[in-house]
Automatic annotation (TrEMBL):
Taxonomic source organism: Halobaculum litoreum
Any one of the GO BP annotations: pyrimidine nucleotide biosynthetic process
Cofactor binding, note field: Binds 1 zinc ion per subunit.
Assigned protein family: Belongs to the PyrI family.
Role played: Involved in allosteric regulation of aspartate carbamoyltransferase.
Binding of Zn(2+), residues: C111, C116, C137, C140
SUPFAM superfamilies found in the cross-reference section: Aspartate carbamoyltransferase, Regulatory-chain, C-terminal domain (SSF57825), Aspartate carbamoyltransferase, Regulatory-chain, N-terminal domain (SSF54893)
Aspartate carbamoyltransferase regulatory subunit C-terminal domain location: 104-147
Name this protein carries in UniProt: Aspartate carbamoyltransferase regulatory chain
Domain of life: Archaea
Alphabetically ordered keywords of this record: Metal-binding, Pyrimidine biosynthesis, Transferase, Zinc
Aspartate carbamoyltransferase regulatory subunit N-terminal domain residues: 8-100
Required cofactor(s): Zn(2+)
Length: 155
């Protein structure tokens, strides 16, 4: 099948954000990062495990009438290092950016260590340093590796 035919699996959008080249299987975690659970009435199209020349298979998430905050892009980069974020206006891609790994992520992840100060009833915001093999809690040193999507702070 040619590439244009493959792309027709998920139709084009008029205005919004296309997050492309998401690591296969991470689309639902990407929706969680964006805080989208379907109740908002936002138009969302999802392609999961669709063929990709670059990645073998990939996920794609298209969100209408919405752009991403820098914090959302930072966490996205941890789950989907190859992702591209495309801004679409009047059907045209007007901006395309690769995600970049941030140095640290504040307030967007939760620490898996139940004894960590960030999990006590204290006004302490979570903070993780980004290390080679994952993210490291700046308070207790706990490292989260593969399952970062399971530690998204609800917002
Ligand atoms: N897209 C969309 N709606 C539009 C325009 C583009 O959903 N109105 C999607 C495309 O289907 C693609 C992504 O946005 O998944 C990026 O579009 P484009 O830059 O045109 O595609 P490519 O050149 O294939 O992107 P790349 O080089 O990043 O692979
Ligand atoms: Zn911790």
């Amino acid at each position: 099948m040619s590439e244009p035919e493959r792309e027709l699996r998920v139709s084009k959008i008029r205005d919004g954000t296309v997050i492309d080249h998401i690591t296969g299987g991470q689309a639902l975690n990407v929706l969680a990062i964006l805080g989208i659970d379907g109740d908002e009435g936002v138009g969302v199209s999802i392609g999961m495990n669709v063929p990709s020349d670059k990645l073998g298979t990939k996920d794609v998430v298209k969100v209408e009438d919405r752009e991403l905050s820098q914090g959302e892009v930072d966490v996205l980069s941890l789950l989907a290092p190859e992702a591209t974020v495309n801004i679409v206006r009047e059907f045209e891609v007007v901006d395309k950016k690769r995600v970049e790994r941030p140095e640290r992520v504040v307030g967007l992840l939760t620490c898996p260590n139940h004894n960590c100060i960030t999990n006590a009833d204290e006004p302490v915001e979570s903070a993780f340093g980004v290390v080679d093999d994952g993210v490291r809690c700046e308070f207790c040193g706990e490292i989260v590796r593969e399952d970062i999507g399971d530690h998204l702070a609800v917002h």
